[in-house]
Fold each of these.
Amino acid sequence: MKLFWHRFKRNKLAVIGGIMVLTLFVIAALAPVIAPYDPKVIDRNQILEPPSSKHFLGTDDLGRDVLSRMIYGSKISLAVGFVAIGLATIIGIIVGALSGYYGGWVDRGIMRFIDIMLSIPTFFLILAVIAFIDPNFWYSILPRWLSFMLEKIIMDPNILNIMIVIGLTSWMGVARLVRAEFLSLKEREFVLAARALGASDLQIIFRHILMNSMSPVYVSAVLGIAGAILVESALSFLGLGVQPPTPSWGNILALGKANIEIAWWLSVFPGLAILITVLVYNLVGEGLRDAIDPRLWGGR
Amino acid sequence: MKELLRLNNVKKYFPAKSGQVLRAVDDVSFSVNEAQVFGLVGESGCGKSTLGRLILKLMEPTGGQIYFDDIDVINSNREEMSRIRKGLQIIFQDPLAALNPRRRVIDAVGEALLINKIAGKGELKGRVVHLLQKVGLDSDALYKYPHEFSGGQRQRICIARAIAVNPRLIVADEPLSALDVSIQAQIINLLEDLQRDSDLAYVFISHNLHVIEHFSDVVAVMYLGRLVEKCRTDELFKEPLHPYTEALLSAVPEPEVGKKTRRIVLEGDVPSPVHIPPGCPFHPRCHKRFEPCDKTIPAFREAKTGRWVSCHLWE
C-alpha cells in the first residue's frame, strides 16, 4: 500500500487528475450551494447572453444560467458514470468468477456469449434498447423498496434507464479480466491449501481468489467511468438520454448545436467539461494501473 | 502398525498438444503406516508433486484407487470427505505462495479451525496462539501478513495451519527446498518433534537424499511417473538395487574430504513424460541395460524380502 502511494505520487499527471476528480465530486455534491442561479428558472430578459460578470458562462435560449446548469449537470454525469460502472463491475465479477473458477462448458458458454456481446456495436444497442424500453420498466421489475429508494435519489426514470442500459452493455471487459485472474489464481498453492482444509467453493472464490484479483478491476472501473460519462453525454446530445428541463452536459451541448452561430458559449463550455472529465478519469485510471503493478500490463 | 494410506495403481494423465498424453503418474501403488515417514524421491518433473496432490484429492486421478483410513478418497461422499480433510493435510514447497497475501496469520490458521468446526469464534485466538507456540512462533505474529515474515517463519505458519486440524498424515511437498540450509535443519527438527508428539505420518516428497536418509523410515524412488524402487531407508542407502537409484546415490556429494566415490554419470536428459520410451522407461539412460529392456516394462515386484524394484535385472 505504501509502495502503491509512492508510485502513484510519482506520476504527476495522475495526481493532478485525482485532484480534479475530487473537485468534480465536491462541485456535484455542493451544487445547490455553489450554483449562482436555479438551473430551471427561465428569464425572458436574459436570452442568449454572452459570458459576463453576471452570468459567467452566459445564458441559453431560455435565459437559464449555463454555469448553474453545468454544475447541476455534473451531478448527473457522475451519478450515471458511477452507477452504470458499478452495475457493470458487479455483473462482470460474477460472470468472470463463474467462468474462471468452474471452467469447462460453463466457461466456454460464457466466453461465447461475451464474444457475441462484444460483436454488437454497443452504442447502437443502447440506442435500440432505450428507444424500445419504457423508462418506468425498471421500476416495475425491481423490488418495491429498491425502486422506491431509486425514485427518491434519482428522480428521473430516464436517467435510471440510461444507467442500467450502460451497465448491462459494458461488463464484458471486467468479466474477461476477472476470468483471467481466476484462471491463474485458482491453481496457486494457497488456494489448494484452502481446498485441502475443506473450504467451500464460495469461501475460496470470495475469500481467497477475489480478494487477490481486484486490482485490475479497480483500474478498469475507473477507466470505464470515463467511457460511461461519454456515452451518457452522447445519448443526451441525441435527445435520447437525460430529458430537458433536467440539465446534463449532453443536452446543453445539443442546445448549443442549434445556436452555434450566435452563441458559442453554449457549445464550448459543456464540451470542455466533458473533455476534461473524461481526460482526468483516464489519467487517474492509468496512474492507478501503473502504480498497482507495473509488470501486470506489459511495462507500459 | 496399522495401514493409514494405500494407493492402488494410481494414474494421472494430462491431455497434451495434438491428442498426445502426458503421463505424470503411472501405475503407482504403495502404502503408508501410522506414524511412518514415507520418503518419495525423484528428479524434478517425475510426478512427485502431482502424486501428492492426488492423495489429497486436489486433482482427480485418471485411474486407480486411494484409500485413507479405509475411506475411498476418490469416491468419497461429503461426510467422508470432511473426515479425510481432518486427517490428511499438505505442506507446500514455497510457503509464500501457499499463504494468501491478503490474510493475516490469525485468519489463515483460524480458517482451518473454523471450517472444520474445531473452534468457535470466541476461543479462536487462544487456539491459534497455542498452534503458533507449537511451531515456535510467538503471539505477535497473529496480526501480521505473510510478507512480514522470513521464509522459515512462513513455513512454520503453513505447518501450524496444517496441524490445526490434528491430522494423522501430512503430505510434505518439498517443504525445505525454498529455504536456506540453516533454516532447513530447524524445519526438519520441527517436523520430527511434531511426529513424535502426535504420532503423525508423513509422505515426505524431496529430492534431497541426505534429508530423506535422515528423516524417513521407508523410501520410494520415482522415475517418469513410476516407482522404480521401494524399501526401508537404511537398506536402500546400503545397497541400491535399481540402476537409477544407484546413479542417484552416487551423485550425492560426500561430506568427507578425499573419500573416493564411484560416480555413475547418466547419459542424456530425462525424456519428456509425453514421449515415454517403450519398455523400461529408464532404459535409454541405463548403464546396465540388456536384451529385454527396450521391449517390455518390468513389473514392480519384491526382489528380496521387503525390497520392491522394477527392473529386468531382478526378474
Note: The CA atoms of residues 64 and 196 of chain B lie 32 Å apart.
Amino acid sequence: MSVELGHFALVLALCVALVQGSLPMVGAHRNNLAWMGLGEHAALAQFLLVAISFGCLMHAYVVSDFSVLSVATNSHSAKPMLYKVAGTWGNHEGSMLLWVLILVIFGAAVAAFGRNLPPGLRARALGVQAWIAAGFYLFILFTSNPFERLDPPAMDGQGLNPLLQDPGLAFHPPFLYLGYVGFSMAFSFAVAALIEGRVDAAWARWVRPWTLAAWTFLTCGIGLGSWWAYYELGWGGWWYWDPVENASLLPWLSGTALLHSAIVVEKRDALKGWTVFLAIVTFSLSLLGTFLVRSGVLTSVHAFAVDPERGVFILALLVIVIGGSFALFAWRGPQLPAGGLFKPISREGGLLLNNLLLSTAAASVLLGTLYPLLLEATTGQKVSVGPPFFNAVFLPLMAPLLIVMAIGPLLPWKRGDLAIVLRQLWLAALTAAIAMLLAWTLYDGRSVVGLFGFGLAAWVFFGTLTGLARRIGLFQGSPVNVLGRAAGLPRAHWGMTFAHAGLAVSIAGMTASSVWKDERIQVMRTGDQIAIGGYVMTFQGAVNAPGPNYDALQGRFSVARPGQPAFTVLEAERRFYPVENQSTTEAAIRSTLRGDLYAVIGESQIGGGYVTRLYFEPLVPWIWTGVGLMALGGVISLTDRRHRVGAPARRRMTTTAVAGAGAE
Amino acid sequence: MKPKHKRLVFVGTGLALLAFAAFLILSAMEDSVVFFHSPTEVVEGTANASRRIRLGGLVEMGSVEKGSGTQMRFRVTDLKATVPVSYTGVLPDLFREGQGVVVEGQLRDGVFVADQVLAKHDETYMPPEVADALKKSGQWQHMKESMQQAGQLPGSKTR
C-alpha cells in the first residue's frame, strides 16, 4: 500500500510543480503579490510530497518488500540494515528520487528562509526550480519508476553490488547530490535575474551562501568518493581520472570559479554577466554529470541503445535546460549594465585570473571526458583517454592558479602594487624554496612534479598564513590586541584561510603519494618479510573470517620498525558475497603522519602462499585532512553574519579607502 | 582604464589561455589516447602494433596459466580470433574465465603484453567494447543466449 502512496505522492508533486512553475511567474510579471506568494506554499508542499514518496521507497527497502521491482533487483534480506537504507539510493531509480528530494529541500529552504528577498526575484527563482523539478518528475515517472511492482514477487532480492556495501559509499551519493543540486539555486537565481534584467550586489549576496553550501557539500562528496576508491578498490590510488570522477570534478571547478566571481559582484559590482554565465554553466555541468553517469553514455555511445527511451529523455532534458538558459543569456545578458572598473593588478584582477584558469581547466577536463564520445560518434573509432592526458593538461593549468592564490588575497581592490605584495610574501617564497630542497633530498626518485608540487603547496600555505597574520596584525601590539583583531575578523576571511590552507595541505599529499608511492607485489608465505617505507612487514598467514553476508579470507601482516617489536597488525580481507556471486578486496590501512601502510591479500597460489600487494603511500592522510579543512572553511564562511540567509540588505560600499586591510 | 580596454585585457587573457590549453591538449592527445581493438583486428593486423592499445574480448575457457610468482598467461577471444596475453601482477576481483575483459598494453612478437587488466564492474556487466567486438565477429547473439541461460546477463527489463 505504502508503495502506491509513494507513487501517488510523486504524481501529486509533479502537479504542484507545474502550478509553481507557472502562476508565480505570471504573478511576478504582472506584479501580483498573491500569485507570487503561491510559489512559497507550493515549494513547501512539493517538499512534503517528495519526502513522503522517498520515505515510502525507503520503507519498502527496509522491510525488504520484494514485490517492488527496484527492491528485488537491488536489495537482499540478509543485508545489514545500514545498506538496506543506503540501498534506497544505490540504484538508478532510487538515486533519481534522492536527486529530486534534495532539489525540493533547497526549494523549501528558499520558501522558508527567503522572506526578505524581493518578492519578484523569489517568485521567479522558485518558478525556475519548479520547472527543473517537473522535468525530473517526468523522467522518473515515465522512464525510471522506483515504485514499479513485480508480479509475482521475488522470493528474495538479487542483492546490492558488494562494492557499494561500504559506509564511505553509503554517504557519498547524498553529499554529491547535495552539491550538484545545490548549484541549482545559483542557476535559478541567475535565470530569474536574467528575466528581471537586473543583477546587483544584493543578488550576489543571495547567491553566495547557496553556492558556498553547494560547494562545501560537493567538496565532501568528492572527498568521500576518492577515499572510498582508495581503500575499497585495493589498488592504492585515490584518483583515476575516470569519467565518473571527472563528472563530479567539472561542477566543482566551475563552482569554485563562481564562488570567487560572486565576491566581485558583491563587493565591486563588476563581472556581472560573467557570474551569471558561470552560474548557468555550473548547474549545466552538474546536470551533464548526473546524466552521463546515470545513462551510461560515457562508457560508449552504444550504451544509449540499452534503453533508448531513457537516453532520449535525458538528452531532451539536457537540451532544454542548457540550451534554454544559454539562449536566455545570449538574449538578456548584454543588457546587464557594466559595473566597477579595476586595473589588471588588483584583487578583482586576481579573482578574474582565478576564474579564467579554473574555467579553462574545466573546459579541458570536459573535452578529455567527452572526446571518446565525440570520436566514436563521428568516426566510429573507440578510444580511451586516460590519466596521461589529464595530467599533461590539468597540472600545468593548476600551477599558475596556485601561484596567484597566494598573491591575490593580499592585493587591494581596484588597483594594487605587485612589488609590495611580493615583498610581503618573502616567508612563503623562502618556505617554498625549502620545501623544494626537501623534496629534492628527502625522497629518492627525483621528479619535476614532486619538486613543484611541494614548492607550490608551501607557497600557498605560508602565503595564506601571511595574509592572515597581516590582517590580524600578528606582530603589532600586545597579544590581547591581536586576539581582539582575530575575533573581529569576518568569518568569511577565516573560511577563506582554512579553505586555501586546506588545498595546500591536500596538494602536498597528492604530490607525495603520486610521485613517491612504494609498491610491492609478490607471492608471500607465512613468515616472509618485506621492507617497505622504513618498516618491515611480516606475513603471519591467512585465516577464514566470515561476516554477516559474506565469507572472508583474512591475511595478517605485522608491522615493525627494523629491529623492534611489532607495533600493529594489518588485517587485509578478500570477501566473497555468495548472493551477488562476487568478491571484493578490503585493504588494511594503518595511517601515520608520514604516510599510509597499505596491505592487500590476493589469491592463494598452487605452490603455497598468497599473492600480496603492499604499499607505502606517503602523505595520503594529508589529502583527507586538506579536504576536511576546505569543507570546514566552507562551513565557517557560511556562519558569517553577512552570508546569513536573510541578512538585511546593506547599502553598497562607497568608500574605497579600505584598500589593504579591511577590504574583505 | 576604460571599460573598453578592460574588456580587451579580459578577452585577450582568456584567448591566450585557451590557446595555451588547446596547445597542451593537442600535444597530450598525440600519445595519451589509447585505441580499442578486437582480437580479430589484432590478428588481421589492422591494429597499429607500435602503439599502446586496448584489447577487449572474452577470457577463453581453460586458457589461464599461472607462471612463476605473479606472472601469468591467458587468451582473449571474440570467438572468431584469439590473442595470447601475458600479464604480471594481480588480477582484479572480477577476472574470470569465460567473462568479458579489457586489457591494455602492447603487442610484442605475437603476444599481447598487458600492464593493465580491467574487469571492474559487477559480474553481470559486459564492457560495451567487448559486446561490440563480439557483435562484429558475429558471435554476440550466441553469446548472449548462453549467458542468459547461465544467469549471467540480466533480462531485458532490469538494467
Note: Residues 347-379 of chain A form the longest helix (33 residues).
